[in-house]
Amino acid sequence: MFDATFVRPDLGAFCRLDELGLEVVGQRLEPDRAVLACRVEPGELDRWCRRCGAEGVPRDTVTRRLAHEPFGWRPTTLLVTIRRFRCTGCRHVWRQDTGRAAEPRARLSRRALRWALEAIVCQHLTIARVAEALAVSWDTANNAVLDEGRRMLIGDPNRLDGVRVLGVDEHCVRHEALLFRMEVKDHHRFAVVAVE
Q1: What angle do CA 131, 134, 139 make, to 5 degrees?
Q2: For a designed S-S bond to 26, which of 37, 38, 56, 173 qualifies (C-beta 3.0 to 4.6 A apart)?
């Protein structure tokens, strides 16, 4: 490409944090991991009380730690600074909404969940390898992948619409659970089912 146009480097776009509603404010590279300091993109709706509708005033901040998809097999951790507000009317306290970045109380970002699910189904990685790449415990990775698989793949009632050929590959996974990997050839989609 002789007419290639380059733009200013953007770490947030490179790490796909813009789709999570986060912006990078700092980074720390360690030999075994990368840590990105982030903040929630400012939103007008976060400033108003969800109970009485009065305007809130900033109270303090809290930090949420999320595992993110690895880059170059180096675990990436997001340190998300979240502002807390207090209502001037009813004194209710709330946090900025981080629903785009992760589920409430989740340890993995939405991008990490997607990466883990694709790593297991498409790349045939084990849960142990996924947990190592995300720098989380085996149980955390396993529970997150099973929950996301149920929500995204099994919970979709239209997942097999228009399918003519279905192949099933079953193999045993630890703790006597069976993992069925179904490849849908017509739509290049996959489904994961865990049966205990």
Answers
A1: 35
A2: 37
Whether residues 97 and 164 fall in one domain: no
CB 88 within 8 A of CB 55: yes
Residue for token pair 């340190």: 79
Q: Where are the alpha helices (DSSP H) in the chain?
A: 11-14, 110-121, 127-134, 138-149
* Confidence label for 172 from pLDDT (cuts 50, 70 and 90): very low
Q: Using an 8 Å Cβ cutoff, are 116 and 128 in contact?
A: no
Please check whether residue 109 is in contact with residue 119, taking contact to mean a CB–CB distance below 8 angstroms.
no
Q: Domain count of the chain?
A: 2
Q: What distance in Å separates the CA atoms of residue 134 and residue 182, rounded to the nearest whole number?
A: 25
Give the residue from 101, 129, 163 where a domain finishes.
101
Which residue, 101, 126, 155, sits at the end of a domain? 101
pTM, two decimals, is: 0.74
* pLDDT (tens digit per residue) in 66-94: 999 998 878 999 999 999 999 988 889 98
The answer to whether residues 164 and 84 belong to one domain is: no
Amino acid letter for position 98:
T
Q: Does 112 share its domain with 178? A: yes
**Opening angle at CA 69, ends 64 and 72, nearest 5:** 130
Identify whether residues 59 and 147 lie together within a single domain.
no
